[in-house]
Amino acid sequence: MILDLFAGPGGWSTGLRTLGLTDIGLEWDAAACATRAAAGHLTVRCDVAQYPTAPFAGRVTGLIASPPCQAWSRAGKGLGLKDQPLVHQAVHDLAHGRDTRPALLEQCRDARSLLAAEPMRWLYDLRPEWVAMEEVPDVLPLFRHIAEILRGWGYSAWCGVLNAADYGVPQTRRRAILIASRVRTVAPPEPTHSQHGEEPSLFGPGRPRWVSMAEALGWGATDRVSPTVTAGGGKTGGAEPFPTQARQALLDAQHRGAWVLHTNRNQQPDGSRQTTDPHGSPAPVFTSKSGGQWVLKRPATTVCATDRIAPPGHRDRSPGGESQFASPDTVRITQAEAAVLQSFPADYLWQGTKTKQFEQIGNAMPPLLAAHVAAAATGLPAPAAAPAEGRAA
Question: Which pTM does this prediction carry?
Fold first, then answer.
């Protein structure tokens, strides 16, 4: 079997399905468990840090883990960054069969920090054939620590930071990834897309350009998006997508070129006749409260734990790729649209309140990226490059 620790609403599970694989998810959040059930994913509702490994001994082929990132994310308080020495100590101790988590937890500034070390308990006890892990970029030093331990156990291991847009996800989401196997040599998945696209050559057909937000959502020549704001929302039937309080901010942002408004399939700024940029760009990273119905000509800064997306031109403040930049230039999207931008199927059955749905979507592993990472870990063929074709309801 394949175990999926901190399984969330099913990002890894959905990606595995494209490879013909099925996992069992361990997840605590009730809404995420309900979403998994609606999608047909097997789930054990439990606290991963307290659940015993013994029932799975000798039965696990693959182990997946995406520990909660809130403690480590620079979009939040980032107390997990200050707890790093304790987390590294927990990984070291668990790798040597010593469970010092209770004592170390008492010293942590954020109780969630130690969850990043939790996969080592499962790795030590179960020794799966292959491993795949995902987290925010600031967890990369911890992944390197885990990879070194796995190599000492006879695994081939790779870890680094991947951009989801390089694998067909219509979003520039950067994540730390660890891949390991004790039966094959592993390497990072080969990108299927590139930022500017590649011309065919003697070495191959070339990679297509990043999938834009407009392509993913199916916005075409008949979809008219106006900066005129009403309180409703939507992009059909003359309804406008922006809340009333954002009217002047959006107009100001458009005038100074911060956001580029597109109203045609060529993805050109409103009123432009140029056709030099036919595809647009991926959406910015979506987290649990992200929003937006602007189609960007270039990616925005990384979205943090807020309902705002900073306009292009504001560099992320941290190497981790996440910023707490506060901007008045806010935009919103529906849950279905956010899910498509995470590469979930447009008809995925999200459960729970609106807030819980956005939380699940924003915290999930993009299924398309998950499929590529799992393919690299298992040796199965990776998904073929193809533009996202989803249209949000």
Answer: 0.78
